Structure formats: C-alpha cells, structure tokens
Amino acid sequence: MEENIGKIFLKIMALMYVLAVLYITFLAPYRYTGRFTADNVNFSPFSDKWFYISNFTTLRDNQKLFIVKEMGGNFLLLMPFSWFVFTLFKNKIKKVLMALLLALVAICIESLQYGLHIGTFDIDDIILNITGGFFGIFLFDVVCNKKG
What percent of the chain clears pLDDT 70, i.e. is strictly above it? Predict the structure, then answer.
C-alpha cells in the first residue's frame, strides 16, 4: 500500500514539474514578445552572457539580478527532469540515453519558443539546461545509489 502511495505521489510531482516547466518556458507573462528576425537566434556560446559575467561588478543591481536569474534558472530547469526519468524508469535508463534525452528536451524547448514567437533560440540556454540535467544525474547517483 505504501509503495502505491509513493508511486502516485511521484507521478503527481512529475506532472506538477512538467506543468511548471511548460508555464515557465511558454506561458509566463515575461516571455519575449518583440519582433522576430534572424537576430532572435544565438549560436555563439556565451557571447552575450560572457559580457555580463566579465562586467558583473559594474552592472546595475537589476542587471545583476537578471543575469543570475537567467543563467541560474536555465541551469536548474532540467535538473529535476533527470530525477523523475531515473525514478519513473526504476534506474534502468542508461546515462548516455539520459544525456541524449536531456539534449533533445532542451533543443525542443528552445526551438518551440522560437517557432511560437515567444522566445529566442539561444545555445547558452541549451548548454545550461543540459549542464543542470547532468548535475541532476550526478546528484541522483550520489543520493540514491550510495553504496555502503
């Protein structure tokens, strides 16, 4: 009985996570609504973010908050994804397949944001999403697969 409640709870939490990701990436009121051109694509890794990072001390407080939220949010976005996939598939999914799944999800999110004209296609976001997902895999291993 307890195992069934745990499975139900996990599925509810996974559903809530998916809904939160959908809201954050597609429906939140702060989404980009400007004119869409080829300029809404960034294939140059960390070109604009590097400017903010290297000049962080000279930025205004609202700019600092923006870059921390932007980069931190992208890093954290897919971290729980790894946990849910590993848990729902009872830790039977290979890490290589998980890495490909993370990349696919991140690329799909960015492509859909661009295609639906609610965001830009930014390689930085993809890199941060995947890195956060890998960190989630690492945490899953540390916490759930501890030996001894």
Answer: 89
* Lookup: tokens for 115: 């295609």
Rounded distance between C-alpha atoms, residue 17 and residue 83, angstroms: 11
φ, ψ of residue 33 in degrees (nearest 5) = -130, 20
Structural domain span for residue 62: 2-144
Q: How many structural domains is the chain composed of?
A: 1
Tokens representing 71 are 């980069």
Q: What is the pLDDT of residues 131-140, one digit of tens each?
A: 999 999 888 8
Handedness of CA 73, 77, 78, 82 (dihedral sign): positive
Do the beta carbons of residue 81 and residue 136 sit within 8 Å? yes
18 vs 141, residue with greater confidence: 18
